[in-house]
């Protein structure tokens, strides 16, 4: 009797890229301050993310600017039309080149 791997695994294993939403860790802490500010806001608001959405946007913007995630439009990330946004800001975001 053999105690090797299960037969389903021996058929082969293929490597696939991570699903959308998976991205590299911030090993150098480049966006750590943005993350801490966002998490503090969540704690103060009982995990209600609505008042903290602008901080989430700042954090994701930091990650996109530093290549820690692919640049995407705010509407795809659920962060378009935040309080304080103007049409000029929304248009400016659309015009940003992918980095």
UniProtKB/TrEMBL annotation:
Signal peptide: none annotated. InterPro entries: CHCH, COX19, Cys_alpha_HP_mot_SF. Keywords: Cytoplasm, Disulfide bond. One of its GO terms (cellular component) is mitochondrial intermembrane space. Its main location: cytoplasm. The keyword RNA-binding does not apply. Residues 31-65 form the CHCH domain. It comes from the Eukaryota. It is found in: Cytoplasm. The keyword Transferase does not apply. One of its GO terms (biological process) is mitochondrial respiratory chain complex IV assembly. Required for the assembly of mitochondrial cytochrome c oxidase. Belongs to the COX19 family. This is Cytochrome c oxidase assembly protein COX19. It comes from Cerrena zonata.
């Amino acid at each position: 009797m053999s105690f090797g791997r299960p037969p389903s695994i021996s058929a082969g294993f293929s490597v696939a890229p991570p699903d959308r939403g998976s991205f590299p860790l911030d090993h150098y802490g480049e966006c750590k301050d943005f993350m801490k500010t966002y998490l503090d806001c969540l704690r103060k608001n009982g995990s209600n993310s609505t008042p903290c959405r602008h901080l989430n946007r700042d954090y994701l913007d930091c990650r996109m600017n530093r290549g820690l995630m692919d640049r995407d439009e705010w509407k795809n990330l659920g962060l378009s039309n935040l309080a304080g946004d103007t049409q000029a800001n929304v248009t400016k975001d659309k015009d940003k080149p992918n980095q």
